[in-house]
Amino acid sequence: MTEVAAKTVFLVDDHALFRAGVRTELDSITDEVRVVGEAGSVADAVTGIVRTRPQVVLLDVHMPDGGGAEVLRRVRPELPDVVFLALSVSDAAEDVIAVIRAGARGYVTKTISSKELVRAITRVADGDAVFSPRLAGFVLDAFADRPGSAPISDPELDLLTPRERDVLRLLARGYAYKEIASELFISVKTVETHVSSVLRKTQLSNRYELSRWASDRRLV
Fold it and tell me: Residue ranges of the HTH luxR-type domain (predicted)?
């Protein structure tokens, strides 16, 4: 029987510990995928992807120097056959829509299991589109352009930085500051700083009000 070649994968995420964890998991559980490189910034990602020419790029949505959509804009014209699969802590409608419009073939959240991630990688490499269950509706709504579609922009929401949105989303789900810090690979002090900034920008006064504000904007 002919052996099927492993799908080659390039990891893009600004957290080195997360990249190391994903790489270790993928290397340990399967021969179906093979990690050929990784990067923690937009510039390094573009250079690395062009150099290694992987079949699939696992792409973080939010990075300090531009994010996943910027990587897509720079790489796709030169390497149109490379497939991008977003892998993010964010499941916000505007993040999903932005990266799909930029050219990603799928979008899964970091709650995905290792085996499910391998399946997602092989599926997008073979031409399928893959989304975490609740995210597909955002894309269908946005591209159908019908009443009730997922919001692409919100003036109040646009005041928040991507990291502030991540913190707010987890806060609204009931995460404690320590749990948010662990999930986002930041310090508790940084979480507190982001929460204070969100309260100031939204002119709200407590966690309960923030949770309702986030829910109204489909962030939760």
Answer: 153-218
